[in-house]
Amino acid sequence: MRESLWKSVLSVRQNSPLVHNITNYVVMNNTANALLAVGASPIMAHAHPEIEEMVSICGVTVINIGTLDEYWIESMYKAAAKAQELGKPWILDPVGAGASNLRNTTVAQLLKYKPTVIRGNASEIMALANAGGKTKGVDSLHQSTEAIDAAKWLNENTGTVVCISGATDVVIFGNQKILIDNGHVMMTKVTGLGCTATSLIGAFVAGQPENAFEATAAAMALLGVAGEIATAQSNGPGSLQMNLLDKLYNITEEEFNKHIKVSQENGKTVSI
Amino acid sequence: MRESLWKSVLSVRQNSPLVHNITNYVVMNNTANALLAVGASPIMAHAHPEIEEMVSICGVTVINIGTLDEYWIESMYKAAAKAQELGKPWILDPVGAGASNLRNTTVAQLLKYKPTVIRGNASEIMALANAGGKTKGVDSLHQSTEAIDAAKWLNENTGTVVCISGATDVVIFGNQKILIDNGHVMMTKVTGLGCTATSLIGAFVAGQPENAFEATAAAMALLGVAGEIATAQSNGPGSLQMNLLDKLYNITEEEFNKHIKVSQENGKTVSI
Amino acid sequence: MRESLWKSVLSVRQNSPLVHNITNYVVMNNTANALLAVGASPIMAHAHPEIEEMVSICGVTVINIGTLDEYWIESMYKAAAKAQELGKPWILDPVGAGASNLRNTTVAQLLKYKPTVIRGNASEIMALANAGGKTKGVDSLHQSTEAIDAAKWLNENTGTVVCISGATDVVIFGNQKILIDNGHVMMTKVTGLGCTATSLIGAFVAGQPENAFEATAAAMALLGVAGEIATAQSNGPGSLQMNLLDKLYNITEEEFNKHIKVSQENGKTVSI
């Protein structure tokens, strides 16, 4: 699997997919920079009169509810509906799901437009699936493994690939599962790396929407490996934020293969 | 006092308070990163339908008027009113007070909800108290000492702790005063470090709302000391922004005590 | 010409012009930091009730349509109209012009308020002038030289200085042209450096509105030279973003003169 994951990295660099983001104010700069670093081309746009054109010209739309309000929620609905209508991939990041009624009703409505991939921490995935669990803001309270039942429920009911990010990232589709053990705990001290993960998934899925499951794993593996290497070069979260962008930009196949820790489960068969 | 200030730093690291921010677009990323670096947990949320829930679940709300507009002003009023109703601490950063009529009427209204702490530069504090002084944008025109009368007026009329930041930071409550002589002039070349100061005050006050006076001094001392150390490692404001986050994250008690320059005045008694 | 360009750099440092920005969410932090680094004083403000006051108290207004929506478009119209009424300089950055009907109608309306300077990539300048060319998001598809006809048309019809940025930046006014061959391709991997260029043009024009042509060239030359030096010190776009701010802050006349590659054409006369 390592080879095909690295091929996804190269594919983004070569094809420079156009990634449309409706995301939160906190992370717009980092997200755009991470997309540029991996070779993608970011567009941030949310105005109702142009939202459908933006969905149409881009390879994928990423919807992140981090700093939602009534206007932006309407933008998200319009974009998701248009993507569904056109058969284009779109990705959902349910930031802070469970923290307010507004977030819960918004993600419930967005689920109806059947996202191609959902990425969240365990609390968010559980809130999404009404599998209980109140979120402590945007931080995770649960181990990612506890949310696997919720992810399976989401996959069965919407057909979406689900990625539960945490110390171990778990990507689920049907009875297949990919586990990624990369990353470093200091990454939780840089704001918005979850949001960055979701945008990178968008870039990777744009190039291979027919295999969103593996594209999602490739994006998560790249971010985890790059984050791990960058952390080793950093004195704290400030330099990590910077070094991570550098490493997303200049990571080599050798580095990727040296660090990646990934395993796949297909039903009861486990392969590495 | 040094010991109790350092205890506040440790307390934030250990208790990871949830800090709700209604702040400006320019600084959201930095503010969130600074809060994470000191060990707090940031939430940025402004939507009217969820604003009261956010105030309720968080330990403190920070309101910063930097890029206000009609919708956000209403969010600020709702949040401040809810915090007052619940007896929760909330912090006001009157960015650019005095620069427009809109800002003046907004902060006048916000004062009615009795913030726990106000932090601004001398111009902003003076504008707030109608003590004269026209602001030159968000930069300070006045020495912080000139605004002390304004700060005393604010304290007497609203019961709030007031922090005038500048070359010397002055924290005022009743007839007590703490002076902090840390920081470096290069910090004025990094956007939003005043806003960062205000958010850190929020994190510190969340853990000891009964002693917001000393919590405010601890936050200002931490930022000043970390900024001073970070400046010595930096070639300019770009690297300072990065090194500051690293230092907020990894500062030790030894470093803190070595650099801190703080004095306290209680009426006419001065102690160090 | 080198000497007068460097004089512009010094003038900004000495006079610290107040630069009002109505810009996009992605770049607000970087733009503010770049303005501070060169010695200017940034204000970000968009609220309708204060927009005219902000135009009045600032030396220049910079309007960037990157993340426009209905409210912000109205802010832009109000600001541009006020600047025109007061005879104050204002700068237009038509981000993504050509990518949606909304952007095209917005920039068409803004042109009526006769911007002092327009800066965009070749696609954007061409879209602006209806000279054809569909934009691929906010990236350039065209060599800057291809947009020169469009720039001339804009100059003739609105009297504005036009800067087409790209591998070679071209600044056009009447039959005069300044070509700047600085910068580095890695700068296209840092989000918003085009927007930063536009804000720096604002800072430079504020100090010499009577010579916006040369002020624009000075801002572009400074960014290009600083970017070139910063790239040589960087491992990727993350460190470039940081080192660029440092270099904008501490660049010396010697460095500027050593690296600058600028030439001027006046009709058929070329000078260096």
TrEMBL record, chains A, B, C:
Binding site for ATP: 119, 165
SUPFAM superfamilies reported in the protein's UniProt record: Ribokinase-like
Associated pathway: Cofactor biosynthesis; thiamine diphosphate biosynthesis; 4-methyl-5-(2-phosphoethyl)-thiazole from 5-(2-hydroxyethyl)-4-methylthiazole: step 1/1
Single biological process term from Gene Ontology: thiamine diphosphate biosynthetic process
Record's keyword annotation contains Mitochondrion: no
Key words of the record: ATP-binding, Kinase, Magnesium, Metal-binding, Nucleotide-binding, Thiamine biosynthesis, Transferase
Signal peptide: none
Binding site for substrate: 44, 192
EC numbers, comma separated: 2.7.1.50
Coiled coil: none
Known cofactor(s): Mg(2+)
Keyword Ribonucleoprotein: no
Reactions the enzyme catalyzes: 5-(2-hydroxyethyl)-4-methylthiazole + ATP = 4-methyl-5-(2-phosphooxyethyl)-thiazole + ADP + H(+)
One GO MF term: hydroxyethylthiazole kinase activity
Functional note: Catalyzes the phosphorylation of the hydroxyl group of 4-methyl-5-beta-hydroxyethylthiazole (THZ).
NCBIfam families cross-referenced by the UniProt entry: PRK09355.1, thiM
Family: Belongs to the Thz kinase family.
HAMAP family in the cross-refs: Thz_kinase
Protein name: Hydroxyethylthiazole kinase
Gene name per UniProt: thiM
